[in-house]
Amino acid sequence: MSVTLSRTNASAATLTKNRTEGSVVPASGMCATCVDGCIGMCEIGKSAYRGSEVIYPQPFGVITAAAEKAYPVDYSHFNIMGTAVGAQGIEPDSDKAIFPAVNLEVTLGRDGGLKFRYPWIISGLGSTTIARNNWEGLAIGSALAGTGLTIGENVVGMDPRAVIKDGRTVDTDDLKHRVKLYKDYQRDGYGAIVVQANVEDTWLGVQEYAIQELGVQCVELKWGQGAKSIGGEVKINDLQKAQFLHKRGYIVLPDPTDPDVIKAFERGAFKEFERHSRVGMVNEESFAKRVEELRQAGARYIFLKTGAFRPTDLARAMLFSSRYEIDLLTVDAAGAGTGMSPWRMMNEWGVPPVALHSLLHRYATRLADRGRYVPALALAGGFAFEDHIFKGLALGAPFVKVIGMARAPLAAAMVGKTIGRAIENRLVPVYIERFGNSKDDIFITARELRSMLGDKEFEKLPTGAMGLYTYYERLAKGLRQLMAGGRKFALEHVTRDDLAALTHEAADISGIPYMMDVDRAEAEEILDG
């Protein structure tokens, strides 16, 4: 039976819908009857009068977006296996082998010097408006939780107060603020703030500045991401800023210096410019050179993030990371997303999570079997809850050490911030008011945070940070429960044997046994005993 995997002509992401919602052509997504006289509510219709604006999720700056495409195999096609026998990582004693005793700490880096309290990292939030508007919650919440946070691309280039001399960064406002927020709340050396760079960031010497002036130890090279196959994009609703970014060297569309474009913008014919980053050109020589430059500049840890490109590119990422001893390789699968990516591209390009991550495990195993260095790996691509995290760690074991997330933590920070505003305005919605009307009553981790920080610091704590911290604590407790159910009391004991595939297709792609084949030989041996 044929199954439609994509929603092709109407989505909340593009603020479009079909006129005949109950009767749609599967291949095109068009209404079964397209009527002369329709105002054009679908994506085709809206494109007839707003053109390329409809390429992107809307409204930009106040939403995050990720693909709606339903892939033939995803992480829901695996179940987590438990056992009633024994314990690993703790004494098999019912009084000791309790789920709060599960250790979620992980160490990273060639020297093992990076330590996270929890096995996840925010894998890149850069110059988008929604990231900037929620950075306070993201940075402080991540630091308090002891996990990693990556400052994404173009932050310096977008900063009008950044000082750039002879093409190199010598001072910043935004980047300095983002790093300081994290460091001010970092506890006991747990976690890491990471500065990522794309083509323009590298030209501007952003990472050298971050290392030498801001004391950043971790930097990340970026080849791409799972949401799109092109460079970073944002929208600009201010003509002067669009002209400023054009002058700084970014691709800005339409040309904000064109007199006709200026007139059209001023009369309201369009309200936003697009700022695009260039795509990188990967080759081994330039990669090796850049790694050496960063080490010479003082970087202690160098990461690489790549996207949902074709398998040969993943193989290059794996080989280069091995050959030049990268500390962490993050592989972001198709369908993910945070800020602004072309909507059709987000849905229809790239290798989806289970396939990409299974290929990564295959490639890592091949290198390890040949005695080659294999860096710590991170998987990204739509992870949001503790079961997703467990499955990613297990599918990629023993190489995958952390899970990359962005959209889900951002949502938690945004909700926390919104609740804080409601408390300040004494307009707490009934749905939330049932828990109380103050930070102490509404946020279940408030008592813990107050004890950790003291009353004075707690009162200054932004509710966005409380939202992220509370979400992370939920993930941690849920992950401990799942691990305890498999009698795994430390992360190093999680293996691919902790998963079973629910379909033959999932088993074929991943190499994880089909459910009915799990433990077959061992079970028969028990029965024959």
Please give a structural write-up.
- It is a single chain.
- This protein is an alpha/beta fold.
- The protein folds into two domains: 44 residues, no CATH class; 370 residues, Aldolase class I (TIM Barrel).
- The protein is 39% helix and 14% strand.
- It is built from 21 helices and 17 strands.
- An eight-stranded parallel β-barrel has the order 4-5-8-9-13-14-15-16, surrounded by eight helices.
- Helix 13 links the parallel strand 15 and strand 16.
- Helix 3 packs across helix 19, helix 10 packs across helix 12 and helix 14 crosses helix 19.
- The longest helix has 23 residues.
- The chain starts with 42 loop residues before the first helix and ends with a helix.
Features:
529 residues, alpha/beta, TIM Barrel, three-stranded antiparallel sheet, 21 helices
Summary?
The protein is an alpha/beta fold. The protein has helices at 43-50, 129-133, 135-145, 174-185, 199-203, 206-214, 239-248, 259-266, 284-297, 311-323, 343-348, 353-369, 386-395, 407-424, 430-433, 439-442, 446-453, 455-460, 463-485, 504-510, 520-528, and strands spanning 78-80, 106-108, 114-116, 120-125, 148-151, 163-165, 168-171, 192-197, 218-222, 233-236, 251-253, 273-276, 301-306, 328-332, 376-380, 400-405, 499-501. It has 2 domains: 12-55, no CATH class; 62-228 and 296-434 and 466-529, Aldolase class I (TIM Barrel).
